[in-house]
């Protein structure tokens, strides 16, 4: 009996395909997004050293999921700008570029990130 559902397996296959093409470095890290049913998470990763530079989530924020995604986009952009990074590679993690993932990306762009 399978323990995962078909949607999750499909997303993980897409994630592998995306990751084969994307890579982040210190000057241009990979902005990885994970969206659960309740929360949304983003982290900037330097793939050459396999270290997370900064991370943000809406786990401690009150409000709607949409407001949480916008908060995470602004928070990750502000943290990266504080470290002197303005350009990133966007990794949607196998999720469709719509809804909360798109809102997070738009909020990060509005806060000054380029990708």
Key descriptive features of the protein:
4 strands, 3 helices, single chain, Nucleotidyltransferase, domain 5, alpha+beta, globular, four-stranded mixed sheet, 115 residues
Give the helix/strand layout.
Layout: H1 6-21, E1 30-35, E2 40-46, E3 51-57, H2 65-82, E4 89-91, H3 100-110
Parallel strand pairs: 1-4
Antiparallel strand pairs: 1-2, 2-3
Helix pairs in contact: 2-3
Low-confidence stretches: none
What are the secondary-structure elements, in order, as H or E? HEEEHEH
Beta content comes to 15-25%
State the shape: globular
Tally of strands? 4
CATH architecture: 2-Layer Sandwich
- The fold-level CATH name is Nucleotidyltransferase, domain 5
What is the CATH domain class?
Answer: Alpha Beta
Written account of the structure:
The protein is α+β, with helices and mostly antiparallel strands and 115 residues long. Helix content is 39%, strand content 20%. The protein has a single domain, classed as Nucleotidyltransferase, domain 5 (2-Layer Sandwich), CATH 3.30.420.100. It has helices at residues 6-21, 65-82, 100-110; strands spanning 30-35, 40-46, 51-57, 89-91. A hairpin with a 4-residue loop joins strand 1 and strand 2 (40-46). The radius of gyration is 14 Å and the shape is globular.
